[in-house]
## 1
Amino acid sequence: MKLSEKARKLKNEYQNKWKKKNPDKVRKYIADYWERQAEKLENSSLDQAIKSSATDSTQQISVATDNKRCIVCGNEFQSKRADARFCSSTCRSRYNRNH
Ligand SMILES: [Zn+2]
């Protein structure tokens, strides 16, 4: 949206006056905004959110979790660790017993 200088000033003036007249609505609007952010953040940390706001969050997550194959039972599993070789601690201990 491109506004002329005059229109922009009018818009700012309008918004400022509106805010002064409706402090409760402004507060509620800000509160609503942060409530929504809080809901979004429920399953992730604030650090993650800050990081992912710079890039595409879904892409970052799919890159971080890779499908791996357990070297003991052959099942596919997901791990964020690049060197993960076992689907579970059961397979890990089974492997360690045999090697
Ligand atoms: Zn396994």
Note: The radius of gyration is 25 Å.
## 2
Amino acid sequence: MQKPLIRIPYTGPLPAPTIIPRFANSITGAIAALSTFLTAPPSHLVHHQHSSDPKSTVIITGAGISVASGLADYRGTNGTYRVNQTYRPIYYHEFAANHEARKRYWARSFLGWTNLHKARPNPTHYAIKSLGSMGFIRNVITQNVDSFHSIAHPDLPTLELHGYLRALTCVSCHNEYPREEFQTQLSKLNPAWDAFLAEIIRSGALDTENPDERRSRGVQTNPDGDIDLPGAPYTKFRYPACPHCLANPPLAGDGTQTKVEIDIDGAWKTTSTAGILKPAVVMFGESIAGVVKDAAEMAVDGSGRMLIVGTSLATYSAWRLAKRALERGMPIGILNLGGVRGEELFFQNLPIGQKGEAGVRAEQASDRVLPGLVEQLRRTGFHGHKEHQSVAQHLQNNTPFKDMLS
Ligand SMILES: [Zn+2]
């Protein structure tokens, strides 16, 4: 029996990184090292592991790459946990068990959605698209729930390890519903909040991409798309029930009939025993579905190296994928501002004088380095390894992974 993979944040401090190779301590140095990393012949260690495409790279991304899109990161650039000290993400067990916790979650999510919904991918996402079409990157694994990868590069397979905010899922029947329509329902059920949201939009607090400026206007946004409002009256917030469960109340696990009841306006009532909607994200304390875990492992095993961008690998689910790559002998590259959990493990026993082919650690902004890397690879005439297998072929041969695509 496999252990379930639970999403839990690692909040300890992380030491500053050692830059590898040493010349990767500038934007141009990082570009040069990553260019060598992506174009080097496959590591001989990987050959023994039967990787299906040892020349290709799997990329793992995290909240750091969405900062340039105006979304908050979990960590400051010095690697300490959370710029906003009062932020504590909601845990799944609280959400599932507690009506009060859900009201608070949905009120904050209601306010945060506008900002998330209008945010767009940034040069990091588009550079990844280019690296994919040039044949260097075959799979993207992201911990982000903002859907920017699938918007920026719909043709490059992306596995969303922690789900996505663009949909809701029912805890009872697992049907999915679009988040955008849900927002309209929340507006109707909570007119006072709707008016308040209109007011903060008018104030311009959501227009600025500067988190400090937002804070100074009384609004704190968080990476999972919600907003902090100290002292807000969450207890009056209302949210709808799952329409499917409302029409067909499901049987509970023990075979008894559940009930789903709503008030006169359509809000979920506490007399209900099912039909709770949750965001289609893997909440903290929730397990990642087995099929997603398997697809992520397959994406790692199918590649010859791993590039980690904009993440401190704080969640065990992401960290263990990096560890898996290491154990398979895959060269590892890290591009992240601030320390990465256990990173010293990834760069032990590198050959002396290596220029990036065996490992890279750079601490530069990905929205500057990756577009520069694409340009550099184009200039030097590298076209990657696309001829081996097209993305479409790959998808056909890879059904469980295809199911994860959105
Ligand atoms: Zn349902």
Note: The chain has a mean pLDDT of 85.
